[in-house]
Amino acid sequence: MKHLLATVLVFLLETVSEAAKPKPFMFVPKEAAEPIPVAVWLQGYRGYSPLGPMPGETTEAMQKLADTLGAVILGFPATTDLGDDTQQWSEEPVADHAYIQDRLKTLTTGLKVDLTRVGLFGFSQGAMVAADLATLYPDSYRGAILMSPGGMGGPKAAEQRLPIHATQVYFCFCGAEEHEGNVGLTKAYAQHLEKVLGAHVTLKLYEGVSKHTRPPDFMTQFTTWMGAILKPGEKG
Asked: Which residue in 77, 73, 93 sits closest to 85, CA to CA?
């Protein structure tokens, strides 16, 4: 009887733990040319929300972004669970890339997606990971939107220029009055991506913005930014 009760207790604890984990989110465009490109959201440190990359925005608003962009918008918790229902990226490119590719393929099962047209967009730690992965695995990611990058460790972007880097598009954003570490890293990434790797780069520091947050025009400009990365009108 004791063994039975213990087994039931373990089952219940595992069920509650699994139920407490954040669920991924996915917005599929209602009308889009197939195969459909994908925009993948990378959260900041402890910052994932199943409501989407902009908590406070409605699901209708997020769906409109997907419809306008003509791409799937997908997000999921980061690599490492911290034990309190929050997560962080490992900042180990091989591990983070493998995890993202697994989640991407698993979550889009049944959809006709174009895995040759994937763009990343991330905030804070997620922005740093997005930049590093997109440069190291340019065959898998067409570019990235980097918003106030920062991390536990240092950048690990590719150092060697490849011909494919010239086809990539990056947007590097930060508040002009944010922490000097975030501002400095935003500028450094923009310079590295453009001067060292030869990618197409847009750098913007938002004057008067000191809060560590996404750009104030994210919801109105996202489809333009990500559209330049994915070029949804192209046929894969």
From this structure: 77
CA distance 108 to 71: 12
Angstrom CA distances, 208 to 5, 218, 220, 225, stand at 60, 16, 19, 22
Q: How far apart are CA 136 and CA 140, in angstroms?
A: 9
Q: Is-above-0.70 flag for pTM? A: yes
The count of residues in the chain is: 236
Alpha helices in 89-193 (DSSP H): 93-107, 125-136, 180-191
Rounded distance, CA 226 to CA 229, Å? 5
pLDDT in tens, the chain (236 residues): 444 433 333 333 333 334 455 899 999 999 888 899 999 999 988 888 887 778 788 999 999 999 999 999 999 999 988 888 888 999 999 999 999 999 999 999 999 999 999 999 999 999 999 999 999 999 999 999 999 999 989 999 999 999 999 999 999 999 999 999 999 999 999 999 999 999 999 999 999 999 999 999 999 999 999 999 998 656 54
Crossing angle (nearest 10°) for helices 59-69 and 218-230: 30
Cα distances from 214 to residues 16, 17, 36, 142, in angstroms, run 32, 30, 26, 21
